[in-house]
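tool=predict chain=A
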Amino acid sequence: MTDTRPLLFLDSGVGGLSVVAPTLALIPTAPIVYAADSAGFPYGTRSEAEIAARVPALLGRLVERYRPRLVVIACNTASTIALPAVRAALDLPVVGTVPAIKPAAAMSVTRTIGVLGTEATVRQPYVDDLAARFAGDCTVLRHGSAALVEMAEAALAGEAPSPERIGAELAGLLAQPGGDRVDVIVNACTHFPLLEEQMAAVAPAGMRFVDGGPGIARRIAALTAGQDWPAHPVPGRLVFTRLGDRERRIAAGLAGRGFPLVDAL
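tool=predict ok
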């Protein structure tokens, strides 16, 4: 029989769709359950203690309901805080999301890179460790932006972000001392690749952006290599922990992009 077990993705909002897309490019018929913890949105402004308690408990409920073959924490904030606890609690593969500092350092000519994430992500010791291990000869500037998360969510609900607002958030990174030398920006929040086109339009000429989505997709493909998949693509399922007007607008926007099924948890 065909193995219909899905891949389960979790984020506080819809940012993890930037990880789903490269995954489906490698495994086109993979069944997808995408869980947006809308009742906990956004993770980036919550305390470490809240996230450490909330994410493992929520994933336990989701795994019990949907019986996935693999879990993806499609959120840098949740991964840097809760990944070890989730792996200890679940008896199946769990893939996390971490800032793409290593490839950014490899790309940088000026040896100055920017890490653009949520407030919670950019202050994590895990980011210090990545910078020390993979970008030791680089200046690494950081900026946390809750506003870009909100703009990405609003964009999928049909509200186009203004270039002025995006430019103001980039200035929080590039206006720092040494920011004029940044030539690569790490999108260290899965929401931000959804706005990459708009950010590139207001960023200095030649600025490059990098995120972890393609690498995560390759890891998922490696962990599921040799497994059976449906012969044809199947409808994706969205799961919200709170289903209000904003979530319904987002769901309507995604219905034609492979996610016609909507659940509330």
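The chain has a mean pLDDT of 94. The CA atoms of residues 76 and 128 lie 14 Å apart.
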